[in-house]
Amino acid sequence: MSAHRPADAARPAGATATRHVALLILDAVLAGGRTLDAAWGGQSRRLEGMSARDRAFARLLVTMALRRLGEIDHLLAGLLERPLPDRHAIVRQILRLGVVQLRFLGTPPHAAIDQAVRLARAVDRAGMAGLVNAVLRKVPGLPSIAAEEAAVLNTPDWLLQAWTDAHGAPVARAIGLAHLEEPPLDLSVRDDAAAWAETLGGELLPTGSVRLSRAGDITALPGYADGAWWVQDAAAALPARLLAPAPGTVVLDLCAAPGGKTAQLAAAGARVTAVEIEPRRAALLGENLARLHLAAEVAVADAAAYDPPTRPDAILLDAPCSATGTLRRHPDVARLKTPDDPRRMTPVQDRLLAHAASLLAPGGRLVYAVCSLQPEEGPQRIAALLARSGAIARDPVRPEELPGLETAVTAEGDVMTLPSMWPERGHLDGFYIARLVKRAA
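Request: output the structure for the sequence above.
Response:
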């Protein structure tokens, strides 16, 4: 934790105020260990007083700093005579934001440096504004870093090694490269996706999602107020598509919030019960369904112990995981997770899988999904389940079920999407998906 935190009493104005909010949020993530969404929410009062443009710039500053953190720190290490001690952690954050503007956002040097110095004078008690000025003045003259080197620098060593072990070094580097790009916005559409792609000026992806390269304020887009669509990465939309419930099918959606997959199942005509353990997230799920004019029962319960009144025909289990497949949209994950996180999640995933399998009616389908690139959270969990239970078997996914993503289907018939896929379209999140069936009694 930083010894010198940004002083709440300091209220810089104008452009400095925007950077001050970005500084508070970045420090909450990197020094305070909070997720980006939680840190952003913690500054809601300040953000409400800012224009939409300034809020967007503050968000861009923070996400770019997190996405390029390894590269930024590599550059700063070459400019500082010695590493800054922890008592100057807030100065380190100011320098990081300065490098973001100078290196990646094209901010004029005089403006970026002046604002960084003003920010240092406003929030730092140690008189380090001179250091900030001297260091940042050297940044524009630094040589560029090759893209592949940047991909390695910006990927934590433990993740790069895990992906290298699982997929080989070229694919691991390609994943790292994909994470450096700002992701497009994907939408799942209640009906007539082709028409909505045309209306919104987007691309209809082969798997049925609509992709927008520039969205702006999504609440102002046609169809939002009417509940015609919802935001959902193209990869996140695949588990419900592969479950493919017929109208009237009784479906359990376990660990359901925020409800994108619940909405897909309900839109397909399934009779859905969405199970979510956290009351706040369950309430959000209900609000999202109400906006979309879709019906599902919401149960606030532990998915590992939930006992439905009737045995479901199908179950979708989007299990909690390390979320290492979502670094494109959540770059804070790379900075907050450790090698222990996937290992800590595997007992939870095993309990959820075993319980889901016990609830399923004979002949019923179970789709297991995690937004993780770590093998211990995906194929290893399914291998363990199949070794324990003779009542469960794979229901292999066929390549033709994933148009445009045929290479994501594994030899076993599971699905592994990688962020390096679809480079010509803007990539997608990493997901592991297995489809299972319960043998008839």
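Confidence is low (pLDDT under 50) at residues 1-9.
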